[in-house]
Structures are given as structure tokens and as C-alpha cells.
Write a structure and sequence with these properties.
- By secondary structure, the protein is an alpha+beta fold.
- It is globular.
- It contains eleven helices and six strands.
- A hairpin with a 2-residue loop joins β5 and β6.
- It has helices at residues 6-17, 20-39, 47-71, 90-100, 102-108, 113-124, 129-136, 140-157, 165-181, 184-190, 215-231, and strands at residues 191-200, 212-213, 235-241, 244-250, 256-265, 268-275.
Amino acid sequence: MSEELRPLLFSIAYRMLGSVGDAEDVVQEAYLRAERAEAQGADIASRKAFLTTVATRLAIDQLRSARARRETYVGPWLPEPLLTSTEPDAAEHAEMADSLSMSFLVLLETLSPVERAVFLLREVFEYGYDEIAEIVGKSEANCRQILARARKRIDEGKPRFEVDRRQQHELATRFLAAFEDGEVDALVDLLAADAVFYGDGGAKGRGISRPVYGQQHVARLLASFVPRYRSIGARVRVAELNGQTGALFFDDQDRLINVFAFDVADGAIQAVRSIINPDKLAHLGYPLSEYARRGA
């Protein structure tokens, strides 16, 4: 069976689930079901429609069970980071950054699984209401109502983004230099007044049990990390994560410690999201540092 639809299916499943591994499993299962259906003589008029329907429904089912697990998750829950291309055109980048960013994926958590599916299929992937109704098993009128509710909730909490990639990169680079130097004043100057830090360790990594709010508090927290990172010879590499400028931190043996994802708007860092839970970093393809683990 043609693999050309795999990127689309992964894009839908990842935005639904916030997990690279789970999204890949959903896509694989969708293909297996299509192959079984064809082997049994089913006439699949549109592979795209069939695969999208199966993948979306599988993601809805997984999300329903995942929501219960996330309610008992230790500390802030963040999606698994995704290394994204650094060379799309400007229009594509703006759209991808908007729907792939950590803050947007976290905001999607406020929607029910079906609301999330309807919202993403319509607003991000531009499916027609008739197609969406078939996929989620609702009437077109019901899907319009679901979208209206979901859109209202998303609009109320939608984060602002700096879409100029050069400005994102420049600000993040200055911020990381100040971080490495432990310069609290420089960090303060680069943070928004209402900046927030999230540290996702999931009880397995050296995470922060709750978000830290405010320019001064975030700057001091980040500066407090510096001696520990220096003690293990840590280094940082700027990377694009979820469509926005971020950073990968490595120990002196080139093992990944954690990642930072930044929200940048109005010339300042609005949020820093650190993912250090090793379960959420394994898919990036780097060996993992034992330093990242809680108690190490």
C-alpha cells in the first residue's frame, strides 16, 4: 500500500496525542487495518478517507485513556518534543509553528477528544464538514457546533507567536548565552514580565513539580541550574523544536540531558518549557544522560 499518506496521518495523530511513539503506532495500525480490509475484499474507494478515519478514531480512543493518565502525571505535562525542518517557506513555517508549538498542543488538552479531532481536521487540515462528520461519526450540524465550542476555547487561550524566524533565533541564542554564563540580569532583560517556566520530569527526570511564574523568579531558577550543568561539562545546541527555536542540552559525553522549547512574542521570551523526562526524549535518537534521571 502506498506510503505517501503517512506524513499526513502522523501530523494528525501527533497533534491529537502529543506523543511521537503513540502517533507512529496509530499510523501503523491504520495501514494494517487498510491492508486487512483489502485482503478481505473490501472496496476502499478512497485510501485517504479510509486511513484518515481509522487514524483519527484510533487517536480519539487513545486520547480518552491518556487523559486519565495525565490527571495523575507528576508535575507539568508537556508533549514529546518534535525536531522539525528548518527550511520551509515563510508561510508554511507560520502555519506549522502555530499548530505544532508546545503551548498550542498543551492548549488542545482543554478540548475533549472529539472536539480536538474536529478542530484539527477543520482548522489545521482544512477538511470539509461532510468529511469530518464521516470521520468522527457525527452529523455535519453537530460538527459545526462542536467546532464553534472548540474554537471559542482555543481563541480564549491562544498564545502569541513571533513568526520571524531570525528574531526567534537571535533572541533564543542571546538567552542561551546568558543562561550558560549564569547572568541573571541578562536573563531578566530577555524574559517577559509574566514569563513562566515549566519543567516536565514525570517523576523520572529532574523536573519541577509546578510552574514558576514571573520574570525574576524564572531568571533566578534558570541561573541556579548553571553550576550543575557546568559540573558535568554540559553544552547546548540550538535546534528547531515543534516549529520554533529551541535547544538541546548534552553532557560531556554527548548524551542528551533535556530540551528547552521557547515561546517568543513581542521581543521577549514568554515561556520556557524544559522536558527532561527520559521517556519523552528517547525518540530523538540520542543516547540519554543519566544526569537527567531523578536521583542520579
